[in-house]
Amino acid sequence: MPITGAKAARTGGDQGVWGRLTRLFWRYPVIVLLIVLLCSTAIVTPAVLSVGNILLMLRQYSALGIMAIGVTFVVLCGRLDVSIGSLSSLMVVITITLHDMLGPSVSVLVALATAVLIGAINGYLIAYLRLSSLVTTLGMFAALQGVANVIGINGNQVVAQPDQSWLSFVGRGFVLGVPSPVWMFSIVAAVSAWVMAWTNFGRAILAVGGNEKASLYSSIDAPAIIFASFMISAICTWLGGLIMASRTMQAQADSGSGMEILALSAIFLGGTSLGGGIGGMGRTVIGVIVLACLSNALILIGAPIQAQWLASGCIIVLAVWLDSISRKRNQLA
User: Fold this and answer.
1) 19, 42, 142, 240 - which has most CB atoms within 10 Å?
2) What is the pTM of this model?
3) pLDDT higher at 14 or 165
4) What is residue 250's three-state secondary structure?
């Protein structure tokens, strides 16, 4: 019997709503995954959606978010930077070790100069000498970790009077009730998104990552773009390391351990392509928020650290798999 009248209208409306929800899921699988994660966790622990908990969660992941944004520039160029973990450790060690000897301003500038030097070395070797980005930055990772271990060989250096140093405001301060690291993360994300969307440099990065040979015929200086992306990655790592140093006000040679894995996880979780040319800063921000929410939710429900790593790995694989299916569906469409 054919469906007519109000029943047909309801059926068509239901199909329309379901169709729109399906299209939304396959277009933004990570965002849908984030919403499901938050809603399911809120049922068990309503505190996860409180303003205080959200600000705390973002504060804890702001340093990682800033570093992930820097690495996103590199990934969009079709390269990788896995040296940020040991570089951030070196930034913390240099900043804290020199703090009481030379003052916070000088220590911060020395750390910045070191980061610029490391970024320039990585950029030159990869952009102009055409070395593998993975192998080069992996070697730099080992070298920088060795330097950090040597500098911190006497144990944990601690700032004598942390509350009297302006450096403590970077990681511990508040502006209008919002932690200063969250403001820094937001500003870096907004500026980076603007650069990618509205500047020739941003368009050149996507062109180089999409097809480097074709970009050369478009009068784009591909080596210079790649070099600049590694410089940006190093500077963002310096800023992230500064936040880490400010939060603890003590130097630990392994303070940045695992940051490179988390940063790349956030980037790929957000949907930025490993091959370059596809993705953006907004995607990376979403990836960082998903990791932060997942970790925070597992902590609130009292899950052991082993379960947190297992759940994080499963969520990352699931999100990347859904994003891959989404891309294939869009290509077929």
Assistant:
1) 240
2) 0.86
3) 165
4) strand
